[in-house]
Amino acid sequence: MNSPVELWKKHPDIDKIEVSSFGRVRSVKGHYYTSCHDHGGYLLVGFRVNGKHVSKLVHRLVAQAFIPNPNNLPQVNHKDSDRTNNNVSNLEWCNNSYNQIYMEKFGISNTESRGKPVFAINLTTLEVSRFRSQHEAERALGVYQANINSVIRGRYKQTGGYWFVNDDGHKDAQIQQKIVEGQRAIAQKQAEVDAKQQTINDLTSQLEAAKQANNDLSQAIKDAQNIKDYSDQAVKSANAQ
């Protein structure tokens, strides 16, 4: 039986790195990045982009490079529940509900079971997701656990486009308030877009009016010139008689 062949692809969003179907990451110049474990047991790699150091979860890099995501699903699931097995055959895009059902069916780690559950609100879509811990949210959404904790503690307003709050059974009103705030923000952004579009429409109308006025002026000048030419010709004819 033939052994699987390791395939390499350039990452679609980070053009300086290549990702392999076996879960390895290297630079386009051939330098292999060493991975390390984060607090939740997932593998991270670090490198520089535009002079800034960034760290990325390996399983998300592999999924982004190899697995189509036409429905724009937000999370990546490890089919065998092994967070270090980032082979492309072990990964799949999924939504939060699928991930929750999968973990309940196949089990979760002791670390996650001891963590406090959290809610995450996508500030663009206002979708609310629930995770068993900050670590699980980090892995699913690709947002650093330290930043999630900073949002929960009120030090950050958001991270990675999400707002987080602990699920202690008494946060329904707070979550609803955040959703309302998000709806207001979306409505405000839409109003700003509509206002800008109206300004563009007004300027376009003014430009068309100016063009028409210029055409009318050009025609008036031509008409005046024709009248002058006719008058000059009439004077010449009269003098000739």
From TrEMBL:
Q: Name one Pfam family in it.
A: I-HmuI_NUMOD-like
Q: Which InterPro entries match?
A: His-Me_finger_sf, HNH_nuc, I-HmuI_NUMOD-like, Intron_nuc_1_rpt, WH-like_DNA-bd_sf
Q: Which SUPFAM superfamilies match?
A: DNA-binding domain of intron-encoded endonucleases, His-Me finger endonucleases
* Stretches of the chain forming a coiled coil according to its record: 186-227
Q: What is this protein called?
A: Phage protein
**Signal peptide segment:** none
Q: Which organism is it from?
A: Lacticaseibacillus paracasei subsp. paracasei Lpp225
Sorted alphabetically, the keyword list is: Coiled coil
For the HNH nuclease domain, which residue ranges apply? 56-100
Looking at the record, the residues that make up the DNA endonuclease I-HmuI-like NUMOD-like domain are 129-164
